[in-house]
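Researcher: Here's a chain I'd like modeled. Treat it as a single chain, no partners, no ligands.
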Amino acid sequence: MLYVRFLRQNKRICEECGYHLQMSSTERIELLIDRGTWYPMDEDMTARDVLKFSDEDSYKNRIAFYQKRTGLTDAIQTGIGQLNGIPIALGVMDFQFMGGSMGSVVASMPLIIVCSSGGARMQEGTLSLMQMAKISSVLQIHQAQKRLLYIAILTYPTTGGVTASFGMLGDIIIAEPKAYIAFAGKRVIEQTLRQKIPDGFQVAESLFDHGLLDLIVPRNLLKGVLSEIFELYNAAPCKKFQNSFFNNFVRLLVF
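Model: Modeled as a single isolated chain. Structure tokens:
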């Protein structure tokens, strides 16, 4: 039995087993951003029902329901703030809003993105899939042309189109312990390949062992680790080779 009050005090980490439970985007912002320094952006951006999509309920009604339930306009919060005094831009996806699904609104590009998503939003069809290319092209400008650092933080769950785009494009990719990270689900893979997939194949520790992640960081240490990363990044000796130097340095820290 877990008491909600104690769970909140412990950053939603089980004291008995160390399991990291899901957090809301607001809780994530409070975890990472210094008190009184958060300035939200794009709060008035909302999804449009261009396709007039309807299944058991209309897409328009679903959006209104989750907006009322979560107090958010869509599945991501973006803004600027300070992390241990360091100015950063931050985007935090919220799984409580339609499974954190990626619609046409979820395509801003801050310095850090905390991913928690079931993938592209089916109610927006091709429009949601277009965000994969859109955000990847913006990342190209952010990383290659402006030579700015982008950190992706993968939490439980990060799947589908988010994994296939900005989730895996970070200069540094960090995951929480035991986070479920995948493109397709285990059942789909097994049916496609017609072979069994090992248990734990799609958790953070397995991906780290296979070189897909740079770091696995417990939630209570995350803010401090990010602060050290930014300090190292700012201290990189040569702007021209800053990203490659920094990536190699962090990988040396892991070992």
